[in-house]
Hints:
This protein is mainly alpha-helical. The chain has helices spanning 3-11, 35-43, 60-65, 70-84, 117-122, 136-146, 158-170, 198-208, 210-213, 246-256, 267-278, 292-299, and strands at 24-27, 53-56, 125-127, 132-134, 220-222, 225-228. The longest helix is centred in the N-terminal third of the chain and has 15 residues, at 70-84.
Amino acid sequence: MNHFRTHLGRTTLAMASATLVAGVSLAASADTLHPAIETLVEMGYPAPQEGELVHVPPTMADLEASDLHPETKKVIRRGYDLFTDTQQLRGQNVYNDMNCSSCHLGEGRQPFSAPVWAAAVTLPNYRGKNDHVNNLEERIAGCFAYSMNGVPPEYGSDDMLALTAYHQWLAKGAPMYPDQPIYGRGFPHPDRPDELSYENGEALYMENCAVCHSEDGSGYYQNGEYVFPPPWGDGSNNWGAGIVRVHTAAGFIKNNMPLGQPLSLSDQEAWDIAYYMSNQERPQDPRYTGDVAETLERFGPSFHRTSLYGQEGPDGNILADHANWGEKGEDVKPWNIGQPRFKDLED
């Protein structure tokens, strides 16, 4: 059994202790608060605001108890298996040490850890990162190209169908295109402090993070298999992944780290650690044009304006000024990058 997957299962927050029914969605009000959400609030997470959409995703146990066709259950189980152990696609679709569940904790169900069910009910929709309307498959493909530093499964393939089926299973009971804001969506970040400290971030990382992720950011391995993912370096996500943006990293750290101790860091500490980590190198953004300044100019407005891509690093070097593609090398190209859509539609 994958140790990393088991460890995350033990530390899933409220969702692990609140399996009541398969897929519960409701609008938050002063008189209704799901027990799973009550547990989150007791841990220090914000209570849902009046009118927010609160959804408790169904579990795999709920799947077994459901009336879905046995073949459908098999496909959803396959999607769950791929989501929690994406490393089985290493060298085919994945070229680093990440799983989907490395960022989307609690099997993709956990609020404030970018629960993935939200994508299933808000897509297709416009996405600024690639400047067109994306469906769920395309959104997952982006994670493979950037967060996995890899190459996505083909649209409509067995693996892509399984992953989308798992996302949609988690969304069971949630309304499509909800009018309300979604409680616990994404990695909500605290307000940015006036100043960020690389030195303080480094000290805090060594004190709070290195025990799991190593002092050099290479992650933690046991018996040849990785247990905790690398936050930077060749085994990590590339410069195009969402979490390289400092505010996204700060939100992830504040709400989820150290593992098992969420919300234990101050806002300043979370931001400083994120700033330190974001100053480290990683594989090149697959949108790289061959010139870091040109790439920054092209993709800065839609993405890199909140990352440190192309900025001066701690040693005076320009971050991402390299052609290092990590394990996949320069010959393996994600086929989904730079594919325009709907160009024939008139305004």
